[in-house]
Amino acid sequence: MTPVAPKYPISIAPMMDWTTRHYRFFMRQLTKKTLLYTEMITTGAILHGDSERLLSYSPEEHPISLQLGGDNPEDLAKCTKIAQDYGYDEININVGCPSDRVQRGSFGACLMARPELVADCVTAMKSAVDIPVTVKHRIGIDDLDRYEDMYNFVDIVSKSGADRFTVHARKAWLQGLSPKQNRTVPPLRYDDVYKLKQAFPELEIEINGGIATWEQCDEHLKQVDAAMLGRAAYENPYLFATADQHFFGSSDPVLSRHEAVEAMYPYMERWLERDLYLNHITRHMLNLFKGQPGGKFWRRHISENINKAGAGIEVVEAALAGVPEVRPELEPKLAISTD
To answer: What share of the chain is helix, strand, coil (3-state, %, to 5)?
Structure first.
């Protein structure tokens, strides 16, 4: 049996309102190789909305995966083809989001109860393109939450040729918990994901949920093929300053936090020329100095001044001037706490 050789052992999860194109460009200053995801975009929005605005991104954002929300195989296939034409590296179907809006559209986590439909969707998507099509799902939903239920889901969907299964190691309650609560309240069941990999050694299995340090990733990678970080990647973005060295063997120098900010200036200038308010970019950078001397000043100065009329890069420069520069080799161990 051919062993799985994951191209991306580490990734940053798709997160609504967080993994925008500006966040992704910012993260590319820290890591060139980590797989990044868009926010979930519905098939209806692409087919009937402003697809150029929704799907455009900067070339520097590669490798990048588009996460689609939908349950109609034909529509998903059309959107997958459009995405390939835009140059996306992968396409992912959302089978994990439990929000009421997603449930009203009959997709997201509720699709775990319909594995045959998910298989049909993946089959249609793969027939339309020659780039990977992946699935992100939960370990279960509501009372359909036994390991055997997840096994059955993956067993059926895998026959469609899905290229990777990213498993959020928590079940989702479709009623009674908010999306935020569904990310923290149901207990993590990592062992079920490990067991899934043992049952399907030929499949690429990625684990997601509550991961916040490289040490934790290393432990998971002893059992599965890849690890996905979500909130940790947003709340402590500088964690990823060493991702390329740690997971991909890169010999490129690690940027300091100051260097990462300064690398963003040309990008900010370009968007200012397009009349974008800089807070669309800087809001994703506020956690860069979290826990560092001057970190509170950085966050406060930008938050209080970036929305003022005529605010430009000088706001960011002034905030940066109030933060002592520390070279990466002198940084304390990069980690944050999580639930």
So the answer is: 45, 15, 40
Question: What's the rounded Cα separation, in Å, for the pair 185 and 173?
Answer: 10
The dihedral through the CA atoms of 43, 49, 52, 56 has a sign that is negative
Contact between residue 322 and residue 298 where contact means Cβ atoms under 8 Å apart: yes
Judge contact between 271 and 281, C-beta under 8 A: yes
Per annotation, catalytic residue among 97, 110, 121, 217: 97
Cα Rg of the chain (Å, integer):
20
Q: What angle is formed at CA 200 by the lines to CA 66 and CA 149, rounded to 5 degrees?
A: 80
Give the pair of three-digit tokens for residue 10.
């580490």
Residue 97 annotated in active site: yes
Place of tokens 């800089």: 278
Structural tokens at position 302: 């930008």
Q: Give pLDDT < 70 ranges for the chain.
A: 1-4, 100-106, 330, 332-339
Closest CA to 264 of 247, 286, 236, 246: 286
Type of residue numbered 134: T
Residue 276's contacts (CB-CB under 8 Å, 6 or more residues apart) are none
Under 8 Å between Cβ of 267 and 56: no
Q: How many Cα neighbours within 13 Å face the side chain of 334?
A: 22
Report pLDDT digits (tens) over 15-50. 999 999 999 999 999 999 999 999 999 999 999 999
Spatial strand order in the sheet of 226-229: 10-12, 226-229, 205-208, 164-168, 133-138, 90-95, 64-69, 36-42
Nearest to 205 by CA among 183, 189, 228, 188: 228
